[in-house]
Amino acid sequence: MVSLSYLGKRLGLMVVSLYAVITILFFLFRILPGDPTSRVVSPRFSAEQQEQLMAQYGLDEPLHTQYILYMRNFAVGDLGQSFQHGEPVLPFILDRTINTLILTVPAILIAFILGPFIGALFAWHRNGRLDNYGTAIALTTYAAPIFWTGMIALMIFSFTLNILPSGGMRPAGDVPGTAVDRVFSLVTWQHAILPIVIFALWRISRPILITRNTMIDVLGDDFIQLKKAEGTPESTIRYRHAMRNSLLPVVHYGALAIGYAFGGSVILETVFSWPGLGRTMWDAVQAHDYPVVQGAFFLMSFMVILFNFIADIVSSWLDPRVKDEGVVE
Amino acid sequence: MSSNYNGVNRREFIVGTAASGAVVGLAGCTGGGNGEAPGTIADDEDEYEPLPEMEFASVAQDEDALRYEVGNLAQRQIEALGIRTNREVVDVGTYSDKLNDREFDFMIAAWTGGTERLFPYYNLFYSFHSQFANLQGGNYTMFESDEYDEMVENFRDEPNEQRRIEYAQNCQEILAENVPIIFTVHPDALVAANTDQFTNWQEMVGLYAYNNIPSLTEIESVDGEDQVVFGTTEALETYPNFFNVTGPDALRLHAFTYDPLVRLNLEGGPTPAAAEDWEWVDETTLDVTLRADMTFHDGEPVTAEDVQFTFDAIQEQGIPYLGSDIDPYGSSEILDDRTVRFSLDNPFSGFVQISLYRIPIVPEHIWSDAIDEYDHPSEWSDPDMTGSGPFEFIDYEPGTQIVFEKNQDHYLADDLDFEEFVYRIYGSQSAIIGDLESGDVTFTQYMGAEHWNQANETDGVRAVSNPGLDAHGIWIPNNEGPFRDVRFRKALAHAVNQQEMIDILLQGSGDEALHPIAPANVRYHNDDVQEYPLDLDRAVELLEDAGFRWNESGELLMPIDWEPEVEYIPLE
């Protein structure tokens, strides 16, 4: 059972973290050199015209006034309007988050469902050929940069074989429907196959390696020997007893991975021209589009903090030692 | 100046950077006063002091690969004179702060070349007239000359084209003689188009070779292809609200949905658009007659009131990006349903080619309500995009695409041999090239040399190295330290190896720059000006003339209490 005081303490910490994130975000972008007008530095801009532009963005107010306004708006869920395209930030980034989740959720599911089984298999055949080659391949997929594997995949499947689209969520000119339309559209999934596979390939190595390493320890435990002596079938020992007892760190890591999944991957989304949150954030950073950057960073931080919280709660429920020691390894 | 020149991407510098990196590395050991003295060694070093170490700044490679690499090469070349520099790589924000606050010694910068720059008002006036030589003003190098001011004002005011060209050419001569900026290169614009889908591609001069209405009216569909896809990595500066426009890419798209009074033809000359005709009454009065029977996409007629409303609204509400275009506009008067009389505050010979081209006509019946409703019409987050232009706005998905459909009632409808235009934003150039070859992209621009070479070798793709109007250079503070002497600036110009930049960084696609007007601007470019070929001996001679010497380790020395003797060289 998770005690209420532990829950309360973790919840309190979460709120403090969020407040800190929101405040840091505000100051972070304002202490950086330049402002939204720096992109349009031009000899013909007079000082008045620059001031006019700053006023248009609300950046002419003193910093403390901006901060108070910002916190007040944040409290009511108003994250402002994008400087670049004028849309209200919150619905915009939530929409982009859905695009990101279309890639990351399947990739993470593939990684965290298949990964432990593969890891268990490697551990069972420890130091055998399967383990040696398999571990090497898993390490390679982890080390290979996504922009490289992504480009190779595009070259083969899009440009050479011409069997999969090269990027975006739909063909040029197709007007997007609602988020629901997009999620249930075959065209979307056709466009998503390559990025999902590439992302899953990169993601899968951690659950494989974590399961493998933990399971090697578990396999040395007495109860495994006992099960063998009992004549329990090998696959039952492997998956039902050994793997299950090796899953705790994978669960913890998995919860964190879901948190990070909301942010997507700037590189993946750039290579595949995917309009997700990661690429949106990158574009906004380059354009000094403060409201969108703040909103995107906030959403990503919120999800990471939230899933950290969930991971801690789930871990402490699965393994009560956690709440005393505060860590799971 | 714009920060978004992306003519060269990271990868094609593998060869170039390897070479320049190695050389810069070597320069670190030998240049900046650690090698042999290039000129006369000071007799008495006590009478001299070394020049302070100077900052050599450019934006980062991610922001603009070409400017970054020009910075690396130019730093090494200038250090050969014994000038100590430290390389500073900055983000765009710091870059603009440094320019605006005049806190730089050497700054790699550039003018990008939209077609309207064929009328070289922008490059000549804002960057060099002394009225902008103040903090935040556009004359970042603080070059000041009464002679130049008068000449460039004459150019601005002169209605007679031949005389105007002469004034502009004199301006170029003054700039070349006085070197307020060390001009480096005019890169070509590398563009490519798929010829399996459309033929008869004709390039407009400058950066936007195909992304313009005149080029698009020329292309002919093959096998009934009815969609044109422009593949680009450039996310638009601000879009879709016209009153919020802050950059050239967005303004260009506004000219798809809204008709300006005038368009520029492939050679850059003004041709009728919403205006059927125009006539100067005197040097500050212009009568413009609207084309008959034009309607907005919602069927409302385009009237003289809409024209007057547009110019008044921009003037009253303010669109900083169009500030200089609207500046000369004083007021307008409606003479009849189709005729507007513009009265300018001061003579401005570029009013037709610049102002009337850049300012599109927006419908009064849509925007007058927005002006009443919002503090500023740019706050309308979901604006009604009804215009009268050749394309109707269908959808904008930020970071992804903008979709336009042909306006069947437009006077250009019969000339446009396709139904849909898509501005498709990609994450990477490589994907664009792949799609250009497979036919998912119809044309692209802002290509790097490596991708351009790849496209050039592909059947069914037309790759063109289009002479550009961009001008690159090294901005220097003309009012500070040794930079005050023209001979010092000339010496720097002689030390810069432009051909090396063209060969290595542009892989041959570009021209050496003499001043801010590129040779592609055939009408205005003056090539009969002082040139500065790579000549270190001449550079040393000029520096010695100006009183500079070197110490034993090759470091440039300046006489204590040195004052410049030649601050300006007038026209002969």
What does the radius of gyration of chain B come to? Answer: 25 Å
Radius of gyration of chain A: 24 Å
Query: Would you count the extended β strands of chain B for me?
Result: 25
Secondary structural class of chain B = alpha+beta
CATH class of the domain at 89-288 in chain A: Mainly Alpha
Structural class of chain A: mainly alpha
Low-confidence stretches of chain A: none
Largest sheet report of chain B: 7 strands, mixed
CATH topology-level fold name of the domain at 89-288 in chain A:
MetI-like fold
Taking the alpha carbons of the first and last residues of chain B, their distance comes to 30 Å
The overall strand count of chain A is: 0
Key words describing this protein structure:
heterodimer, A: 329 residues, mainly alpha, MetI-like fold, 16 helices, 72% helix, globular, B: 572 residues, alpha+beta, seven-stranded mixed beta sheet, five-stranded mixed beta sheet, 17 helices, disordered N terminus, transmembrane helix (chain A)
Question: What does this entry look like structurally?
Answer:
Chain A: Residues 97-311 form the ABC transmembrane type-1 domain. The complex is a heterodimer of chains A (329) and B (572). Chain A is mainly alpha-helical and 329 residues long. Chain A has a domain at 89-288: MetI-like (MetI-like fold). Chain A is 72% helix and 0% strand. Chain A contains 16 helices and no strands. In chain A, helix 4 (89-124) crosses helix 11 (234-243), helix 5 (129-143) runs antiparallel to helix 9 and helix 9 packs antiparallel against helix 12 (248-261). Chain B has 572 residues and is α+β, with helices and mostly antiparallel strands. Chain B is globular and about 85 Å long. In chain B, helix 1 (13-30) packs parallel to helix 2 and helix 9 packs parallel to helix 12 (364-373). Classes of the chains: A mainly alpha (329), B alpha+beta (572). Chains A and B meet through helix 2, helix 6, helix 13 and helix 14 of A and helix 3, strand 17, strand 19 and helix 13 of B.
